[in-house]
TrEMBL record:
Protein name (record): Thymidine kinase
Coiled coil: none
Gene Ontology molecular function: ATP binding; thymidine kinase activity
Residues that span the membrane, as ranges: none
Catalytic activity: thymidine + ATP = dTMP + ADP + H(+)
Length: 56
């Protein structure tokens, strides 16, 4: 935990390797196919309107 712009998301993204990143389909703030940090670092993801539609 920490304040906004404290680097929490970039620190988490540096640690993960083999994950499926999923975000809500209505989250279109920076990119439809990426999770983007405040400092514009992108990590690919799936944007889904319904989690049950995700298949590994």
């Amino acid at each position: 935990m920490g304040p906004m712009f404290a680097g929490k998301t970039p620190a988490l993204l540096r640690r993960i390797k083999n994950v499926a990143m999923i975000k809500p389909g209505k989250d279109t703030r920076y990119a439809n196919d990426s999770v983007v940090t405040h400092d514009r670092v992108k990590f690919p993801c799936w944007a889904l309107s319904d989690l049950s539609s995700f298949r590994v």
